[in-house]
Amino acid sequence: MKHFIICCISVIFVFFAHFLGISILFHLSGAFYQTVGSLLLFTLCYTGLTFVLEPAEKVLIHSMKLLGINRRITVFAAEMITIGCLWAAIYTADELLDDVLLTTSAEIMIAVSFFTIDKILYPRQRSGSLLY
């Protein structure tokens, strides 16, 4: 029971930090949302969509590795696929909710910001594998 409570508190903390990050990025980009509840719903929708798009992103990146192209081109293409999937999740969440209005440049800025934060917090190790 204690382990379950610790896991629940951890999940709540991570989601709150993600929600706080999205709200800060919304303020920086000048995005519009009607209520905090709509921003919370956007965060839930975005998080769910990233879980749905993650397997497709991994398959695309793995297929890029199998093509046998130049290493730098493959790494660049994999990073662009990652940013594209992040943007697709943000774009879809924005289109699903009428209470949140994002410009395309704000969507791209948020996607690149999350990509950069991911690269800073979770650097990939260079042991043997090409990307992961």
Automatic annotation (TrEMBL):
Keyword check for Transmembrane: yes
Task: State the superkingdom.
Answer: Bacteria
Keywords on this record? Membrane, Transmembrane, Transmembrane helix
Query: What InterPro entries does the database record attribute to this sequence?
Result: YrvL
Q: Which residues cross the membrane?
A: 5-26, 32-53, 73-93, 99-117
The protein's name in its UniProt record = Endo-peptidase YvrL
Organism from which the protein derives: Bacillus licheniformis (strain ATCC 14580 / DSM 13 / JCM 2505 / CCUG 7422 / NBRC 12200 / NCIMB 9375 / NCTC 10341 / NRRL NRS-1264 / Gibson 46)
Q: What is the lineage of its organism?
A: Bacteria, Bacillati, Bacillota, Bacilli, Bacillales
